[in-house]
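Here is the promised in-class demo. Please do not try to memorize the tokens; focus on the logic of going from shape to residues.
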């Protein structure tokens, strides 16, 4: 088995460690799984879909489920609309900051 040394930002290393720990894997095992999925020669319609399929086969694709939300009450919506647009314009803040 070969070894590979990678240089990457500390923040990325921290994120990778967190992701591996969340899945109950060592950083090495998780990185090996992700990298293997990235080079799997299976082909799909586009690159993003191909990557999703590879990650799913490797068991590391995170599936996002839509959340059910209640519509806001009409009165709350009316209050929000009335409040929108009040205050300082963003363009004014940007110009002020540039001076």
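The designed amino acids, position by position:
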């Amino acid at each position: 088995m070969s070894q590979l040394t990678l240089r990457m930002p500390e923040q990325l290393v921290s994120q990778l460690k967190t992701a591996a720990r969340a899945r109950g894997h060592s950083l090495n095992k998780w990185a090996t799984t992700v990298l293997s999925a990235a080079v799997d020669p299976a082909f799909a319609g586009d690159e993003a879909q191909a990557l999703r399929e590879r990650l799913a086969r490797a068991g590391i694709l995170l599936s996002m489920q839509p959340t059910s939300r209640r519509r806001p009450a009409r009165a709350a919506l009316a209050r929000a609309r009335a409040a929108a647009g009040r205050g300082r314009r963003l363009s004014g803040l940007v110009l002020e900051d540039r001076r």
